[in-house]
Design goal:
This protein has 202 residues and is mainly α. It has helices at residues 2-19, 49-66, 85-112, 119-148, 154-182, 185-191, 195-201.
Length: 202
Amino acid sequence: MRQKASRLAVTAAGLACALTLTACGDNKPADNAAAPPAAPPSAAPSSAAAADGNTGAWVNEFCGALGPLADLGQLQPPDMKPGDLAGARTAVGDFLGKIEGSVGPVVDDLEKLDKAPMQAGEDAKSSVLELFKPVRDEAKSAKEKLDAAPADDANAVKEAATSLQNVGKGLQKASTGMSSAKGTAEVEAAGKDQPNCKKLNG
């Protein structure tokens, strides 16, 4: 999953670069070096079977909420012709919409997820939201602004392309931070045999 998010980040940044009027080839890769969230402290494992069952069920829902992220690695930027403003506008808008369509449900479902039966789960949920909510918000806002702009507004396309670069950086940060966000040995162990987690790691 992290590899898929990383590939999309490169794709998003490359597409945005192609749409700007600046020479991207001379730019060094941005240091997206916001350090990944620290792994939350492990909670003591519960010996109660009921507690274990509750934990497993919650982690299964947690993994299910992350499922749409698998779609990120499938996105490919469309071919565009130089000077084709209409084509560029469509490409950027569609790409932003697809990113929002993948990341948005993750954020929505995690926010609706019941409180975890263990602190490690709450820490993992908070970390994932911290990573992906800004990506969702920027993609959504940029697409709304682009859609509202006049069809011949080249500046609006440039601004949307810049937002797309920011989205790519956010996805790179998220791809790096996911292993820490998913967190503790308790969360990993609880999800090992859960169907949604198996599907996510497949």
